[in-house]
Structure formats: C-alpha cells, structure tokens
Amino acid sequence: MKYILLILLKINDMTFLEIQKRIHKNAPVDFGTVFSDALTLFQKVWSEGLIMLLITFGAMIGVMLILYIPLVAGAFIIDGTGSIEPSEEASILLLIGMFLVYVFLIAFMGFLTTGLQAAFYRQVRLRDQGLKQDRSVSWGMFFKKGYAGKLFLISLATTGISLVALLLCVFPAFYVAIPLQFVGVIFAFNPKLSLNEIITASFNIGTKKWGIAFALIIVSSLLAQMAGLILCGIGILFTASFVHLPVYFIYKEVVGFYEEDETIARIGA
Question: Membrane-spanning regions, if any (predicted)?
Fold first, then answer.
C-alpha cells in the first residue's frame, strides 16, 4: 500500500476543475481536529521545518551581503585627507540603488520561500502517510527547470497583491493574507496548474475557510512563539514551521489528495 501511495504521489495532479468542485463542496473543518493533527505531525517534521528556515535565512543574508556591500562601497568617495565621506550624487545613487535592492529582495524572498514551502509540504505529506524520505522530494525540486519560471511569477503575483492591498487600506491586506497562505500548498501538490489557476484556487479556499484558517494560523503562530521564547528565544527556529501545518490539514480536508482517491478506487476494483 505504501509503495502505491508513493508512486501516485509522484505522478498525479488534480485538474483545476476537480479542485474547484472540491472547494465548492465546502467540506467541514473542525478546529480541534486540525490543531490536534498538526501537533501530532509536527513531532515528525520539526527537523524539516528547521532546515527550511535555516536555508531561507542563509540565502537572505548571502544575497543582502552580495548586493548591499558594493552599493555602500560605491556610494562613498575618499577626499584629499583620506577620510571617507558620501557625496551628494553618491547619496542619490545610493537611495536609488537601495530601492532597487529592496524590490529585488522582496521578489527573491517570495521566490525562495514559496519554493521551500512547497518542498516542505511535499515532505509533510510523506510523513503524514508514514512514508520514508524519497529522493525525488528534495528542497530544490521546485527550483528546477519547468517550475522555476512559474515559481518566480507566483512570487511577483503574491507580492503585487500584497502591495496593492496595503495601498488600499489595512483591512484588505489583513484579508488577503489568509488566501495567500494557501498558494504554497496548492502549488506543492498541483504544480502543473497555471499561475491564474493557482491564485484563483488559493483565494477560493481561503475565502471559504477564512475564519477557521485565521483562527488556526493565529493560535499556531502564538503557540510557536511562546514555545520559542521558552526555549531561550532561539527555539523559534525549531517551532516556527508549525504555523504551516494547519494550512496543510485544511487543504487536506477541503481538497484532499489524488492518490487517496486512486487507492480507494483500486481497492474497490
């Protein structure tokens, strides 16, 4: 049975219409059940969550150093006394350069975090099914040719939606934050969907389950922070990924997974 599940997990995706039908059925989601299942599963995947955060922080620090140091160095000139002072022209260039760096960092972090979250959800699925680590499920699986371009477009789209919501008002930004949480999990298990289909499905499921998703994310985030503080602050690195698990279980309850339907059909046949 485990081998059948593993094979189907690799090769099958749901169509956009199938996902939409399942979302519109609006399957009930119980707060207590999801929270309890998330706690249980977290004990199996906390190490993967830690790795995800360490990769993210490492990449962010590396990119900031690569881009920031040349900008600062180029913005200063050495005067006749040997002291280093910024010129007026250099200050303007520095501001422009920092703005471009800021935009690039937002897009890059969106690209990186979405890809890592998608890989994390695939590893979570393996643990949820009681399967061992598979070589095809790796941290770089969505950064390869065929997915990287779509992943970059997803990061641009989510960043654009967030910025527009912030410009409109605080409440729209507050609202869209929940649907955007589902982008990673939908992309993880349905990478063949188009950009528009991924965003649409995310907002559909996020809108249908906005209340319970908001409650679970807030409670999970508070619990992760409290546990991290108890573990001398640095423990937040070990607990931060817990907030992603309620999103996974909401997706599991509302949309489900194609390999489960295929396995049931084969048993029935």
Answer: 50-78, 90-112, 151-178, 198-219, 226-251
Q: Which SS3 state, helix, strand or coil, does residue 85 take?
A: strand
Q: How far is CA 108 from CA 104, 198, 240, 246, in A?
A: 6, 19, 21, 25
The more confidently predicted of residues 11 and 138 is 138
What H or E segment, with its residue span, contains residue 77? strand 76-78
pLDDT at position 86: 54
Specify the pLDDT at position 188: 93
Give the confidence band of 220 by pLDDT, cuts at 50, 70, 90.
Answer: very high
Candidate ranges 60-74, 125-139, 253-267; pick with highest mean pLDDT = 125-139
The amino acid that residue 42 corresponds to is: F
Partners of 86 in the beta sheet?
A: 76
**Cβ-based neighbours of 108, under 8 Å, separated by 6 or more:** 63, 155
Q: Which residue has the tokens 């998703």?
A: 213
Q: How far is CA 172 from CA 65, 98, 110, 166, 184, in A?
A: 34, 28, 20, 7, 20
pTM to 2 decimal places? 0.82
d(Cα 92, Cα 98) in Å, to the nearest integer? 10
Q: Per this entry, what is the length of the chain?
A: 269
Query: How many domains is the chain partitioned into structurally?
Result: 1
As a whole number of angstroms, the distance between CA 118 and CA 191 comes to 9
H or E stretch at 84: strand 84-86
Residue 235, φ and ψ in degrees, nearest 5: -65, -15
As a whole number of angstroms, the distance between CA 42 and CA 4 comes to: 25
List Cβ neighbours of 204 (8 Å cut-off, separation of 6 or more).
Answer: 20, 23, 24
The answer to whether 12 and 261 are in contact (CB under 8 A) is: no
The dihedral built from the CA positions of residue 241, 243, 248 and 253, taken in this order, carries a sign that is positive
Tokens 């995706």 locate to 13
